[in-house]
Amino acid sequence: MLSSHSFFLPPAADVVLEAFPDETIAVNLETGRYFSLDLMGAETLELLTSGRDLGATVEHLAARYGADPVDVEPAVVDFARRALAEGLLRAASECPPAVPLPRPEPAGVPFSAPTLTVYSDMEDLLLLDPIHDVDATGWPVRADQSESEPGRPRTLG
């Protein structure tokens, strides 16, 4: 159960994050899922992994966006739950070292719930390891495919 005193760690090494001007893309190489985080989602994820507890993240976002913490907290808790479930955050058993947060600068836009969009349409491709998951026939045939599966190349002779 998450509380305002919950702490988080950055994702494991098998999660890759890449920031772009209008979104952040994350790929969980263990599950094959990839994600799109809007700017609010990326900022929230960064704050949650900064060593501050969930309550401090809520307070920071509320101050930055001129919002009531009572309105911000449910959105941040929901986002943190989803990020934990997808492996984009890890729960910390104790307070990790905190990265100093600068005083929040006013954003000039209202607060909106952070968005985390999950994509699973390429799981098989992202999980494929063509170097290690093939047999003697080679790529693109996985080692666990049987002779009778369609699409398996056959040796003519």
What does this entry look like structurally?
The chain has 157 residues and is an alpha+beta fold. The protein has 2 domains: 7-121, no CATH class; 127-157, no CATH class. The protein contains 4 helices and 6 strands. The strands form 2 sheets. A 4-stranded antiparallel beta sheet has the order 2-3-4-6. The chain has a two-stranded antiparallel ribbon with strand order 1-5. A hairpin with a 4-residue loop joins strand 2 and strand 3 (24-28). Helix 1 (39-48) crosses helix 3 (69-85).
Describe the structure concisely:
This protein is an alpha+beta fold and 157 residues long. It has helices at residues 39-48, 54-65, 69-85, 123-127, and strands spanning 7-9, 15-19, 24-28, 33-37, 90-92, 116-119.
Rg computed from alpha carbons, rounded to a whole number of angstroms: 21 Å
Report the β-strand fraction as a percent range: 15-25%
> Percent range for helical residues?
25-40%
Report the order of strands and helices.
EEEEHHHEEH
State the domain count: 2
Question: What is the number of strand segments?
Answer: 6
- The helix tally amounts to 4
Low-confidence stretches: 151-157
Class inferred from helices and paired strands: alpha+beta
Mean pLDDT: 83
User: Main beta sheet: strand number and arrangement?
Assistant: 4 strands, antiparallel
Separation, N- and C-terminal Cα atoms: 62 Å
- Overall geometry comes to globular
- How do the strands line up in the largest sheet? 2-3-4-6
Name the quaternary structure: single chain
